[in-house]
Hints:
CATH class of the largest domain: Mainly Alpha
Number of domains: 3
Strand order of the largest sheet: 1-2-3
Number of strands: 3
Shape: globular
CATH superfamily of the largest domain: Phosphatidic acid phosphatase type 2/haloperoxidase
Strand content: under 5%
CATH topology of the largest domain: Vanadium-containing Chloroperoxidase, domain 1
Amino acid sequence: MKDMETRKQIAAEKKRCNSHNCAQAILHTYADIAGISEDEAMNIAGAFGGGMGNMEGTCGALVGAGLVLGLVNKDKVKSMKQMRQIMAKFQERNGATQCKYYNKQKKLVIMNRLSKWMLAAIFMICGTMTVFADGDEKNGKAYLTQAELPDMSNFLPPPPEFESARFVADQTQYLWGKRQRQNKERADMAIRDADYGMQTIIQEFCPILGLQITKEDTPELYTLLQDVGATCDSISDRAKQKYMRWRPFMYYNEPTLVPEQEEKHRTNGSYPSGHTVLGWTMALLLSDINPAAADSILARGYEYGQSRVIAGYHWQSDVDAGRLGASVLYAKLQGNQRFREQLAKAQQEFAEKTGTATGVKSTQSQVPAANSNGYNLQGQRTDTPSAPGIYIRNSKKYLVK
């Protein structure tokens, strides 16, 4: 498969030599990923040049990207989500998405019938498209494709209807969440949990896990968390799109604990909770990494979901559905060979980093009598292993806590 830089150059050259319009340059370059022939790509995108039929409308590079997404994903919800991301990045970088506005604003000189804007547009689109096709080092590479993911819109029950008897329980929990905000420590936790992503997971779960996870020091664990996180990212999209449930802060027109995130959540359905899917999946995963700490890890995973109720972004039934979805997803992952192999590597790395793979005895009762001869790991003689550390006696290692 061609890498990102190669595709950028190929697409730009197609437009530069005027053999392709912008939409054709993108679709033709990604024809192998889209599963169509190069001739079909040329015909499909033929009418979108010059900003839609030479009308200086939406840039053809964006149209080409949308065509690729539809052909690759075969999933309306996922394609629309990714298209919004591309549009937002395009708008931010170029100031407009329509040819006529950008050309008026920037007054760029046409060079070989390709404006610098069009070249930049193609470069940006190709970079983004390659990320979606191949996975991203920053965001991880999902273990399951969209087609392989469990469809939460099929197996979840519908959310409680507003004003129904079931909805009363949600309202009661919403009031409970507002009371929890009076506890500063719990409110601060809910605010931290609102930042969706792996860094929050690492920050909140690693102290309980018993090992700090970093890309440099624990690469196998880091990769596992990154890729599982990427797998969680879109599993709830179809159900959210299907129900488009109002969030509590919208229903009551009341502020949340994280007001700066309210606007972007108004157009994203409340049911099920995507944060909870991530938090509970990670709790299940980390429990497999360190079973000895499973109870505490799962307790934190539970509170991660409850934080969404406390913050005012989700109803309790949203959170409960998120946990169910996470459990189904984690069960599905067990059948993925790449996941199983990476999990084994991560478990081994955890054991090596924490000393549990060295034969160290972790129970205090196995330390010999104080007057027996022994050495610490620095080779120093010690007869009284009272200080915390690892000691060697009679060719055996002992851990003193």
